[in-house]
Amino acid sequence: MTIVADIHADIDALKEFKDALTQFRHAQREVAERGDHQFEVTRASLEEKAGRWRSLLARRQSDLTACQQAAAQAAADDSAEGRPADCGAQARAVQEAQERLELILRWQQRVEEEASQFRGAATRFRDLLELDVPRTENHLLAIINGLEASRRVQVAGS
Question: Taking the model in full, what pTM does it have?
Answer without folding.
Answer: 0.66
